[in-house]
Amino acid sequence: MAYTIETDESGRKAVSFHMDADRIDALFKEVRREIQKDVSIPGFRKGKIPASILNNRFGNLIVSEVAEKAHRELSDQLFEENDWILSDTEPEFDPVLPSEGRDYDYTVVYDLFDTPEPRDYSGIEVPMPEFDQEKALEEALEEIVNRFVSYDPVERAADDGDLVVLEYSSGENGEPRRAVVVIGRENMGPGFDEMLPGLSSGDSFSAAMEFPGMEEPPKATSFRVVEVREPKRPDLNDEFARSAGGFDSMEQLREKVLENILEKYRAERRAYAEASVIDSILAANVFEVPKFMVDNLSSDYVKRLEEDDPSPETLEGIRELAERKVREFLLLRQIAIKEAIEVNGEELDKVAAGGSRSSALDRVRNEKALDLVVSRMVETKAEPPAPHEDKQDGQGWKWVPAGDVAAGEV
User: Fold this and answer.
1) What is the pLDDT of residues 386-406, one digit of tens each?
2) DSSP reduced 3-state for 109
3) C-alpha distances in Å from residue 364, one per residue of 114, 115, 275, 377, 400
4) What is the dihedral of CA 323, 325, 326, 330, to 10 degrees?
5) CATH code of residue 16
6) pTM (2 decimals)?
7) Alpha carbons 97 and 120: distance in angstroms, whole number
8) DSSP assignment string, 249-278
9) Are residues 215 and 265 in the same domain?
């Protein structure tokens, strides 16, 4: 072992590290090769500068680089084999630097972060929305049927479910454009479909998009009904099942659709349960987390944005998210430790796949801790959602009639 834990107190660890002279010499050669790639000295070919010259010019840099590489190598092994979380306090290093031809021995004192004892994670009440299996099945079948609906032209006024072909102007002196709307699906946005029933081919109307807080009247757009078409729905029979999905019968189609619905429901239910219990645990366990962990995770999030200059508001939101995720990680980790959750070698090998086993341990153990918390939650009946009402308090936009327009005007 390349290290020895000398002091093993709960919040403080003194570790003596050792690296053999052979490995130290190899690191000195490695650092010199790296420096030779970037420097040129008159009288010497690049990459052929003698070690003595490099030592004279870059001696301090070489030694410090070797010390950093040696410590990274040794400490990686330490943290792979020990389940520690460091605090924000900087480790205390011995002022000892490596020398060629000699073993490298030094001591580091680490201060560890002590996650508070997690509380209120058993018996969390989770209001679970009711699931109407038959209703979900009928809605899914309706979506399938809608993909096979054909529309035939009719000489009558439009009604719910009809397809209406509209023509409108795209602006001043703009070329007329067309829009296709199925009444009831809100293809154009809220409020638009309500103006279509009763209109026939050749009729026109004017509508405007009304936004919250508008001080000036909204700009109107003129529409003309080009054509009204009524839906022709296929019969739900074995022939439809064969054309829609290659099934032998309608019963097989229904069974497959139901299977997909239940699979999706179970996944959504699990995700909802996990999010609910995590919210509850975080609300019950508030504490300061190590700043360096938040800094590192925030940096990762910023890189994923692929933005050159994120706004201060974006950076603040990222930091809040990172703090939340770090606290979630620490709490699940501590729950796993408190509950003596074990991870076997096969589970580690499967997740690590050649990577860090300590990271794999955290991942598998935290997943098991979350499974435990979810298994102990108490489901309660969720209140049904309030009936939908049109908002009049400026929370959204909608289409509104904008006066009559002469028939045929676009």
Assistant:
1) 655 544 444 589 999 986 433
2) strand
3) 21, 19, 18, 20, 54
4) 140
5) 3.30.70.1050
6) 0.73
7) 49
8) SHHHHHHHHHHHHHHHHHHHHHHHHHHHHH
9) no
